[in-house]
Specification:
This protein has no helices and eleven strands. The chain has strands at about 5, 10-15, 20-25, 35-40, 45-50, 55-60, 65-70, 75-80, 90-100, 100-105, 110-115. Strands 2, 4, 5, 6, 9, 10 and 11 form a seven-stranded mixed sheet that branches. Strands 1-3-8-7 form a four-stranded antiparallel sheet, with no helix packed on it.
Length: about 120
């Protein structure tokens, strides 16, 4: 059974940085497309970035140029480096992995950006 565990959230001032990690427990991490979503209070969960099995990345316009997704297949971990954080980045951030019909979610980690 695959489990995803996020870490690295917290409280940061506007303009600051955080790095989130998502550790994948299970086999075949390298086969999974990995994504980061976020959900702000009262809002729908939104996809903010994706990294494919070959390392190709995509970003939502709201985070492009500020956030960077990366993966370390040797450590079964995907990262989200978040720079120049803004109060509107405040949300619960979720890691998601997908391979064919298999999809898994982490429990989420809170990121709060104060102005």
């Amino acid at each position: 059974q695959v489990q995803l565990v996020e870490s690295g959230g917290g409280l940061v001032q506007s303009g600051g940085s955080l790095r989130l990690s998502c550790t994948f427990s299970g086999s075949d991490f390298g086969l999974y497309v990995m994504n980061w979503y976020r959900q702000a209070p009262g809002e729908q969960r939104e996809l903010i970035t994706t990294i494919t099995t070959s390392g190709t990345t995509n970003y939502a316009d709201s985070v492009k140029g500020r956030f960077t997704i990366s993966r370390d297949n040797a450590k079964n971990t995907v990262y989200l480096q978040m720079n120049s954080l803004k109060p509107e980045d405040t949300a619960v951030y979720y890691c998601h992995g997908g391979f064919g019909r298999w999809h898994y979610w982490g429990q989420g980690t809170q990121v709060t950006v104060s102005s």
